[in-house]
Write a structure and sequence with these properties.
Layout: H1 3-15, E1 18-22, E2 24-25, E3 28-29, H2 32-44, E4 49-52, H3 57-67, E5 74-77, E6 80-83, H4 85-94, H5 96-106
Parallel strand pairs: 1-4
Antiparallel strand pairs: 1-5, 2-3, 5-6
Length: 107
Amino acid sequence: MTPESKKQIDQMLKDNKIFVFMKGNKLMPQCGFSNNVVQILNSLGVPFETCDILSDPEIRQSIKEYSNWPTIPQVYINGEFVGGSDIMIELYQSGELQQIVEVALAS
């Protein structure tokens, strides 16, 4: 990971309470796992931004090193790595995600 890409990722996470590195974007997810995450966040009615890793090979590789997590999508809330699709589904079904999001948006 280059210092430039780390700085770019840091800035994206700093500027957005909820951020998703995904294939595609929130209007047009390009894989089922990314779509799951978008649908979950949309159902909570919370604001979030995305980065299409397919259009940026440098970020695609760097985010995996940044989080030490090999797969996409990756969800960050308040700058903290939360997880991918499976973890988001579990947190959503348990009601925990709603609480995490509410705390993040209130801070």
